[in-house]
Amino acid sequence: MQKTHLPQTITERLSPSSVAETLATLTTGYTPDPERELEETTYYDYPVLKTPTWRWEIIWYFFFGGLAAGCYVIASIASLFGSREDRVVVRTGYYLSLLAVLPCPPLLIKDLGRPERFLNMLRMFKVKSPMSMGTWALVSFSFFSGITVMIQAARDGILGRWWGARTLAALPQKLLSLPGIGVGFFLGSYTGVLLTATSVPLWSRSKMLGAIFISSAMSTSSALISLVLRLTGAPRHTLHKLERLEWAALLAEMTGLLVFLRGTGRAAHPLVGTGPNEHGPTFWRFVLGGGMVLPWLLQTISLLGRKGFERRSASSAQGPNGKQKGGIGLVISLLVLMGGYFLRRTMIEAGQTSSSDARTTLWNAKR
What was the pLDDT predicted at 319? Predict the structure, then answer.
């Protein structure tokens, strides 16, 4: 009697690596064909591109830069169009924006190696250079963030009651925030454009990285502000506005990422595959799965009131004066922040893997 291997076959197909490879094929539309790809011409399999030397400094620079930009934009929008209850979002967003942007210059200088290299980048202004524009955007955003936070601190009484604090408090914060919003949007998206401007197949095949990074900046920033407000206590109505913003930003981020994977095709395999030096397991678990889809579904359930997740949390952790603490929103915010960090980490590390693939580089150059 012939033995059946059905259970073993099912187990193999449901293994994490098999599931990841199936998802990679579905999202990119590319199925690896090693025999055919080995026939493609290369120069003795030597890499065509020099591997980018970006390390942890750039990963954290991208992450903190997105948080700073998103927090500033959200706080400014709340200041311009929000209600009196939303003033807590304005204060929290502006303070978090400054705290997030402070590590960015040291991280960038650490990556460049010497401080004078950063100063040399300010000697010229090249509109067609994403790196030049990004440096000036960081400096400009730091100015707007700093002056806006100084005004906010003066109005909150943190700077005391001397004449300098009164002068700062009288400055038009809303008017100053208008150019800051534009610079913030640029800072949040330019990192993706910077990657796209390279010759690395993973980064340059699609033009969606700028949109993905600004969507991620908005989702992670709304998650961070929501996290802080939940820990300190905030009006439920204000938190619900942040939840809707976070939900919409996550949806835009997931849509952009799926369009990016489909448009990148074969060049996206270092990001979604499970082979040697590929980052599929991390991407599917911590970026798309645990950092986007799961929190988006939880947020959807919370907003629709299904199963009463948020209602039960509110009834057990409700503060006075309609304020709310804790709840499933804390978990959602932490998941979104995790997804934002690993999005940038896996994108950079997978790009380094992509640059060493000579065949994919030459295939990408034929488009």
Answer: 47
Report the run of H or E that residue 257 belongs to, with start and end: helix 236-264
Rounded to two decimals, the pTM is 0.89
Cα-Cα end-to-end distance for the chain? 55
Give Cα 345 distance to the centre of its chain: 10
Nearest CA to 333 out of 213, 231, 222, 214 is that of: 222
Beta bridge partners of 323: 235
pLDDT of residue 7: 59
Helix (H) and strand (E) counts for the chain? 19, 2
- Give me the half-sphere count of Cα atoms (radius 13 Å) on the Cβ side of residue 286: 16
Judgement on whether residues 248 and 341 belong to the same structural domain of the protein: yes
Are residues 176 and 267 both part of a single domain?
no
Q: How far apart are CA 69 and CA 134, in angstroms?
A: 12
Q: Take residue 105 and report the two structure tokens written for it.
A: 């210059």
Q: Is residue 326 part of a domain?
A: yes
